[in-house]
Specification:
By secondary structure, the protein is an alpha/beta fold. The chain has two domains: about 240 residues, Type I PLP-dependent aspartate aminotransferase-like (Major domain) (Aspartate Aminotransferase, domain 2); about 100 residues, Aspartate Aminotransferase, domain 1, CATH 3.90.1150.10. Strand 9 and strand 10 form a beta hairpin. Helix 11 runs parallel beside helix 13. The longest helix has 27 residues.
Length: about 350
């Protein structure tokens, strides 16, 4: 079996999730979420966040598009970092749903509160789309984190400007594990209005959720979810995955493992780097390791050879910047094998 550092999506399904799916595969129950598993999962997710209206969905792109589409009028737009997943990695899915994205220049994946005012001059001008939502990811697309205080400041500034706040939480679990805080602290308590909450990258087969923290925003969402192909007829199997991950905080333990393996990779890189110094830009990290992603400058020839044996992505081939991702299923042995091969290729 190949060892992959290409994406946490390359990982399989956690064994406990598979067991839960098998256990849910008993008898006949009502469809489209009108079943005991879905009700229990939504209640437990809301409890995890300290409140909110929860709607289960099937994938991250669908969750993001639905969350944004549900509160936008046709002439309104989303303000987001220029590296945001909704802008760079969803094949125009937001645009296909009529969602205009206005971008902000980010620094190490993050935006600053004073940037939020950039498009406020559009307000009231009939020749421009009207900014309505600020959207950002936690963790960011570059593996960095917003602290609870940073999230709160962003949401306060956004709300002052009349904007709602959406968080793309595909890897929110990794942020919680690293920062040592509950998901509610990073979202509802920090002023986030709508969350796309991911489980697929964290041990599920295919399970996501959209959570509304601000009352009244979810009006009509049930219809929109069906219209946008995110309502599973056999929703109990989506719910069962969440129930397995929530049991005994498996969701948090999975994220801790992924983060720990990323740090192990980083520590190994540092050792190798010292051996081969002073070669410029070799094995340098582009961004700090704060979750389960590493962005590393590699010698291109060695990197290409390494990639053939251990799949990963070149984030920017022009600068030989690679992205390595770890997951709940990454082991110490896999990390050490990968590092050993890298060192051999550099010799």
């Amino acid at each position: 079996m190949n060892i992959s550092f290409g994406s946490d999506n390359h990982a399989g399904v956690h064994p406990e999730v598979l067991i839960a799916l098998s256990q849910a595969n008993q008898g006949q129950v009502p469809a489209y979420g009108d079943d005991p598993w879905t009700r229990e999962a939504c209640e437990k997710i809301a409890l995890l966040f300290g409140g909110g209206e929860v709607f289960l969905t099937l994938n991250g792109t669908g969750s993001n598009v639905l969350a944004l589409r549900s509160v936008l009028k046709p002439w309104e737009a989303v303000v987001a970092p220029d590296c945001a997943h909704i802008h760079t990695d969803e094949t125009g899915a937001p645009e296909s749903a009529g969602i205009k994205i206005l971008t902000l220049t980010q620094e190490k994946g993050k935006i600053l509160p004073d940037q939020i005012t950039k498009y406020l001059g559009f307000l009231g001008n009939l020749h421009h789309v009207q900014p309505r939502i600020l959207s950002f990811s936690q963790t960011t697309e570059l593996g960095t984190l917003y602290t609870p205080e940073e999230v709160k400041i962003l949401t306060e500034e956004a709300h002052k400007a009349g904007l709602l706040v959406h968080m793309d939480g595909a890897r929110l679990a990794n942020a919680c594990a690293e920062l040592g805080v509950s998901p509610g602290v990073l979202t509802r308590e920090a002023g986030v209005d709508i969350l796309s909450f991911g489980a697929t990258k964290n041990g599920a087969l295919g399970a996501e959720a959209v959570i509304f923290f601000t009352p009244g925003l979810s009006t009509g969402f049930e219809m929109l979810r069906k219209q946008h192909l995110q309502l599973s007829s056999k929703m109990r199997f989506v719910a069962a995955q969440f129930l397995a991950l929530l049991k005994n905080d498996l969701w948090l333990e999975n994220a801790r493992i992924a983060n720990a393996m990323a740090k192990r990779l980083g520590e190994g890189l540092e050792i190798i780097n010292k051996k081969f110094l002073p070669r410029p830009r070799m094995l340098n990290l582009a961004y700090p390791i704060q979750a389960n992603a590493l962005f590393v400058y590699l010698p291109k020839v060695a990197g290409d050879l390494l990639q053939k044996e251990f799949p990963f992505y070149w984030w920017d081939e022009s600068t030989a910047l690679a992205r390595w991702m770890t997951s709940f299923s990454t082991t110490e042995s896999q990390v050490d094998t990968f590092l050993k091969r890298l060192e051999e290729l550099l010799d």
